[in-house]
């Protein structure tokens, strides 16, 4: 089965341009078939962006898709940005979107944290639900390993997609979690290393 958290070059291209307004800034994103939420900024991402507190230092956008979360947060808070995805089309779009929105980023193709050597003040994940729990939990474990001391992980996940089991997994890894916001089944969760 094909989904967005794989590298499938056989998916036919259907380019689209998305406009998104955040904190007084209008962002333009090029999107395409075969990446997550190709038609619009999804409700979970929108909620995460609106509820995440001000950030500092460096940021990892894990499973970045076409790059919107990292680009918006990096520009809003002047962060040093790294973006990662396994999907070659997503990486291509992220590079293009960083240029369109005047954001510098270290952009890598990587299966979860396989190619990551750095440590981060903040990691954000909108988990690729269709990729399955094994992949998602690998992301959580990698996030714990690659956060600096006192670094923070931010996740957005729906209750119906495993928010409760995510909370259990995060508590086992981090020994803590906080639900920053709950709305219409969406959870914004943070953990501190």
Care to describe what's here?
30% of the residues lie in helices and 31% in strands. 41% of the residues are buried. The model has no long low-confidence stretch (mean pLDDT 91). The protein starts with 15 loop residues before the first strand and ends with a strand. It is an alpha/beta fold and 193 residues long. The strands form two sheets. It has a seven-stranded mixed sheet, with helices on both faces.
Task: Give the tags.
alpha/beta; 9 strands; two-stranded antiparallel ribbon; seven-stranded mixed beta sheet; 193 residues; 31% strand
Tell me briefly what this model is:
The chain is 30% helix and 31% strand.
Distance between the termini: 35 Å
Structural class: alpha/beta
Number of strands: 9
Shape, please? Answer: globular
Q: What kind of sheet is the major sheet? A: 7 strands, mixed
Q: Ranges with pLDDT <50 over ≥5 residues?
A: none
Quickly count the helices: 5
Overall helicity: 25-40%
How much strand content do the residues show? 25-35%
Average pLDDT reading: 91
Q: What topology, given as strand order, has the largest sheet?
A: 5-4-3-6-7-9-8
- The H-and-E topology, N to C, reads as EEHEHEHEEHEHEE
Q: Whole-number radius of gyration?
A: 15 Å
């Amino acid at each position: 089965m094909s989904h967005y958290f794989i590298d499938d070059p056989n998916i036919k291209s259907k380019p689209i341009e998305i406009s998104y307004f955040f904190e007084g800034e209008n962002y333009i994103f090029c999107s395409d078939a075969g990446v997550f939420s190709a038609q619009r900024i999804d409700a979970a991402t929108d909620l995460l962006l609106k509820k995440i507190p001000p950030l500092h230092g460096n940021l990892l956008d894990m499973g970045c898709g076409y790059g919107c979360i990292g680009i918006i947060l990096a520009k809003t808070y002047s962060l040093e940005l790294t973006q990662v995805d396994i999907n070659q089309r997503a990486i291509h779009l992220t590079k293009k979107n960083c240029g369109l929105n005047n954001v510098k980023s270290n952009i890598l193709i990587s299966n979860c944290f396989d190619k990551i050597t750095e440590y981060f003040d903040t990691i954000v994940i909108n988990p690729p639900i269709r990729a399955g729990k094994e992949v998602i939990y690998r992301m959580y474990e990698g996030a714990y390993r690659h956060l600096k001391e006192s670094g923070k992980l931010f996740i957005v996940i729906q209750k119906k997609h495993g928010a409760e089991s995510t909370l259990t997994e995060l508590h086992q890894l981090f020994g803590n979690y906080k639900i920053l916001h709950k709305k219409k089944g969406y959870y914004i969760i943070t953990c501190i290393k």
